[in-house]
Amino acid sequence: MQTSGLKATLYTEPAGAERGGDIHYLSVCSHDTLTRILLADVRGHGEGAEQLSQWLYTLLLKHLDSLPGSPILAEVNRIVCGEGLHALATGVVLTYNKESRLLHVANGGHPAPLLRQGRKGWEALEIADPPGPANLPLGILPTAIYTEAAFRVEAEDRLFLYTDGLTECPAPSGDFFDFNRIESTLTNNSYSELSVLKE
After folding, report:
1. pLDDT in tens, 31-41
2. Helix (H), strand (E) at residue 34
């Protein structure tokens, strides 16, 4: 997938109907300035992923031409709380402005995206929480606040998004793919094509 601002590669595997699922969207605003990536993870019941997907799609269209991603998380959180979605969900919204070259990140309890700039190592894009309940997984508290932070990115920088389906899925040996293994795999493949990621 490619927009005028970003090039992206997606890898996903379906989960069983009772295990929930991942939701991912890539959109471009009507002025071809803002590229938005949304990744959400629903654990519990598969039908919850379908319902959340519909709500998120509607909100993405509503906010297509606006820069902040945090209102999307705030609105879907209120909907999830009001409708009583019986599944734990997390989500992250990233909006890249190709004119300012800033990547805006809003996070609702999701694993932090990783960014590699130039020859530096991979860095987690963490967001400082304000006082009070903030940046929580979706559906826990209807009044939760969602904030965001902006990071400058340049051509050739790389961004890695994932769900805990990666870190919580054991290999046949029983070992988990923990953060150290993620970082090592990414570092060893820093200059590979995006469609190729080998451990």
Report:
1. 999 999 999 99
2. strand 34-43
